Amino acid sequence: MSAPQTQPKTDAAEAGVKLVAAKALKLPTAVLALDAHPDGKTLFAACFDGGVYQVTTETGALRLLGKHESYASGVRYLPKSGQLVSAGYDGALRWFSPTDGKPIRTVKAHQFWSWKMRISPDEQLIGTVTGQYLAGGYKYEPAAEREPSVKVYEAATGNQRWAFSHVPPVLSVAFSPDSRYLAAANMMGEVRVWDLQTGKQAATWTTPDFTCWGIIKSHHYVGGIFDMEFSPDGNDLFVCGMGPMVDPMAGNGKQTWQRFAWKESPPRKVSQIQESDAGHGLMEAVRFHPDHKVFVMTGRLAQGKWNTALFDFASGRLLHATDTKMRTTDSVWLNQGKQLALSGATSQERKKDGRCPDFGHIKLFDLQQASGVASTVSVCE
Amino acid sequence: MKKNQRTDGMGACTPPEHTLHRRLFLQGLVGAGAASLLSWNGLFSMPAFAAQAKKQQKHCILLWLCGAPSQFETWDPKPDSIYSGPFRSIPTKIPGVRFGELMPNCASIADKLSIVRSMKTKQGEHFQAINLLQRGAEPRAPFVRPTLGSVLAQQLGHLDSPIPNFVLLDPCPEGNEFKEFKAGNWAGWLGAQYGPVRAGGEYKLTDVNRLADTTTQDFEQREALRRFLTRKFENDHASAAAASENAIFERVKGLMRCADLFDLNKVVPKDRERYGPGTFGLHTLLARNLVENGAPFVMVANGMPWDCHVFQHEIYQMLVPEVDRIIFNLITDLEARGLLDSTLVVMMGEFGRTPWLNASRGRDHYPDAWSLAMAGAGIKKGVVVGATDSDGVDVTEKPFNEKNLFATIFTALGIDPYAQYEEADIATFYRVEEHAAPIREILV
Predict the structure, then answer these.
(1) How far is residue A35's CA from residue A30's CA, in Å, rounded to a whole number?
(2) Are A219 and B302 a contacting pair at CB < 8 A?
(3) Which burial class, exposed, middle or buried, applies to B408 when counting CB atoms under 10 A from its CB (0-12, 13-18, 19+)?
(4) Which residue has the higher pLDDT, B244 or A255?
(5) Alpha carbon distances (Å) from A304 to A53, A210, A340, B211, B361
(6) CB A56, CB A44: distance < 8 Å
(7) Is B80 an interface residue toward A (CB < 8 Å)?
(8) How would you list the strands of the sheet with A327-334, edge to edge?
């Protein structure tokens, strides 16, 4: 695999896009996943307390729709059916009706956590991934799975469609834009792609750039690919996470995304974040803008200047970056891409007057395009 | 050591094995040295004594969970607190007592353990806290207090035992502040002979096997010649260096005789399967075997893996199940071998973790309220002592510090906690300072 040699200028780069903070909402508990109603006025948040909340962007009002028995880790709105699906560390998938708040069904998908859950673009299928990191070797290589690590359910019925094998823990999952392929990646940087029409594995490769074995302090593995998304044409897969660390507990690996031409044999690394663009910290979400020219990567800032950045799809060039002052866990574009909503958390604090101060956050940003701006790359500190 | 004049009798021990020590001394079976030291050579020349001594020999295994494990995911879960992580709690063999859900094996033998849920110490930085929890008191420069292992090596050990009196099994050469500590002076004023022999992982005992082309007879003859010449040199020149070299040779000879006990390739495959596959478990298995063969003190560590400021949930899902399985196997194995009553097992780190999660979903250092577990020699079974509030922020019942802990360990092993050190050129020190009381609730 090799990185690209050219970085063509594009419309997006010329446009000088930037994110401007528009609104900040506080929640009493951390938000691990976020989705939006197509109207852009209603958000859905999966939270630490197990709650799946409806959030009104205008007022910040919260409405609890349902609860998992542990952290809620995934939430997706299905516009066609008007239903909401959530996933949790209790291994369950839950369906709700956000209009009346009534539960529709619950499916126990995994014995361990659902790390990530995604809906196919045609809204027919739900993909969810699991797996506990257990010592499998002298150097703490991950042990083999004890249950299928990747499962696919029918969104309309809750019936299981596929169960795929992987090496746990499997942290991220994504559907191709045509809903035909499902990709899933694990802590060791291994990516597997399946054809959902045949159930056969269509591709597999491993990138060593997201995982490390602790040299200082502790001898075990840490890291992995925390999120992924297919390119709008479906030919490439973008993955994100954090580069290797010497101290696996430092959380200061390089902020990293990589782009793979997954249909090639063997899959080829097309590009990756430029060394000069990257700070340090775990990147937890990557999402394409609806115009398909820009994607956003967001996560945690350990060292550097940003934890959320816009990149040009064609060149991979960093267009704009900002520090949201929280650990960002998920992102969703609103209002045809005019706004970006980011979810996350800050540190918990000691209780004051018997109550833990709010530590969950949803922050809204306006996407502004300023054609003719001299410098198209900016970092807001 | 002499008795601390301030002692109230608590911990003034006259256990049978001490009587045995004195008798052996009177019979001249033991050469000059510390009053509590036995000679394996002399002891094993008398089978009756050997059997009795072996039976009454006390041991200690310290599972050193360096980096400081979270009490919330182990011994003191708070499932109803906003600060609880994603892991839930499970019932244990003790009615009303719950452990973290990643500890089902320990939950099943909770009736063999004692849990202290109210440790409250004052050092929140690793190096200082490791120093504190390994030595049992704050430093008082320029004097260096011996670590627990060194004290137990002196008190329970045998200078000419082939098995080292203080074994540190730690395959990870690194460990940030622990690495710094490891490079320091373990034995303090007791002297280097009570320091640890380090082995495990990258610290394989090498060059302790007799060369294949050297017969036993040849080896013994060469060794006799070496001993004669170096002793002569030592005597003629009053050479401390030669004396030290001779001591090292004796230690190496001992290691040659017990090298197999340090060899992971020689362990029983079924045991390996139960304790492994990770290094911490395999070295705990070595600790079990070493104790079974007479080692007085074995400390097992594995770098500093518990210091999870980030990725806490991601790493604890692996670390806690591993230590849960290891503790279960160790305790049940020692019991099955009739060694649990004579072997104290201590499971702890240098402090606990904050109730509140930081932005990275990790827990930071927290000495204010934390937990540890003990089992075996001198320890009651199925006891939970102390308590913290509903969020685990403060100790609400019976706070204990490092001095209480050390008094408990010494008492459990039949060692006077309040004896005064008599080493030359040191100020007045006691094994446990300030006459701190042991945690009586967990002592037999």
Answers:
(1) 15
(2) yes
(3) buried
(4) A255
(5) 33, 18, 22, 56, 20
(6) no
(7) no
(8) A17-27, A360-369, A339-345, A327-334
Asked whether A166 and A149 are in contact (CB, 8 A), the reply is yes
pLDDT for B426 equals 84
**Closest chain B C-alpha to A59 CA, distance in angstroms:** 25
Distance CA B37, CA B58 (A): 13
- Nearest CA to A183 out of A197, A169, A196 is that of A196
Which range among B105-109, B177-181, B242-246, B429-433 shows the weakest confidence by mean pLDDT?
Answer: B242-246
Q: Tell me which chain A residues have a C-beta less than 8 angstroms from the C-beta of B304.
A: 217-218
Q: Where are the beta strands (DSSP E) in B275-348?
A: 297-300, 343-348
In which order are the strands placed within the sheet that holds A294-299?
A283-288, A294-299, A308-312, A318-322, A378-380
CB contact under 8 A, B305 and A132: no
Give the pairing type, strands B370-376 and B343-348: antiparallel
- The distance of A263 to chain B (nearest Cα, Å) reads 31
Contacts with A32 from chain B: Cβ below 8 Å: none
B248 CB within 8 Å of a chain A CB: no
Q: Is the pLDDT of residue A376 over 70?
A: no
pLDDT for residue A7 is more than 80: no
B279 to A219: CB separation less than 8 angstroms, yes or no: yes
Residue B18 has pLDDT above 90, yes or no: no
Closest CA relative to residue A10, chosen from A314, A375, A238? A314
- Give strand pairing partners of B64: B348
Whether residue B359 and residue A345 make contact (CB cut-off 8 A), yes or no, is yes
Tell me the HSE value of B23 on the side-chain side, using a 13 A CA sphere.
11
* CB-CB under 8 Å, B358 with A348: yes
**Residue B192 one-letter amino acid:** A
- Measured in whole angstroms, the distance separating CA A148 from the mean position of its chain's CA atoms is 21
Do A282 and A303 meet the contact criterion of CB atoms below 8 Å apart? no
Q: ipTM more than 0.90?
A: yes
Nearest-by-CA chain A residue for B126: A217
Please report where in the chains the tokens 């209603």 appear, as a residue. Answer: A42
What does B339-370 look like in DSSP terms, one character per residue? -GGGEEEEEE-SSEEEEEE-TTB-EEEE-SSE
Nearest to B176 among A187, A216, A350 (CB): A216
CB neighbour list of residue A174: distance below 8 Å, 6 or more residues apart: A118, A127, A182, A183, A184, A227, A228, A229, A230, A237
Domains in chain A (CATH in brackets) are 11-380 (2.130.10.10)
- The helix/strand/coil state of A305 is coil
pLDDT bin (cut points 50, 70, 90) of residue B85 is very high
Whether residue A247 and residue B277 make contact (CB cut-off 8 A), yes or no, is no
Tokens representing B162 are 């082939």
Please give the angle made by the CA atoms of B90, A132 and A148, to the nearest 5 degrees. Answer: 115
Q: Say yes or no to pLDDT of A195 above 50.
A: yes
Q: Kindly determine whether residue A29 and residue B82, on different chains, have CB atoms separated by under 8 Å.
A: yes
Closest CA to A52 of A37, A38, A32: A32
The encoded tokens of residue B184 equal 């320091």
Overall residue count recorded for chain B in this entry: 444
Residue of B85, B66, B64 lying closest to B307 (CA atoms)? B66
Around Cβ A78, how many Cβ atoms within 10 Å? 17
pLDDT in tens, B35-76: 334 444 433 344 554 555 555 689 999 999 999 999 999 999
- Window 209-238 of A, Cβ < 8 Å to B: 214-220, 222
Q: How far away is chain A from the Cα of B78, in angstroms, using its nearest Cα?
A: 13
Domain ranges of chain B: 16-204+263-442
Give the separation between CA A297 and CA A293, rounded to whole angstroms: 14
Q: Which CATH superfamily includes the segment(s) B16-204+263-442?
A: Alkaline Phosphatase, subunit A (3.40.720.10)
Shortest Cα–Cα distance, A298 to chain B (Å): 14
Cβ separation of A219 and B82 shorter than 8 Å? no
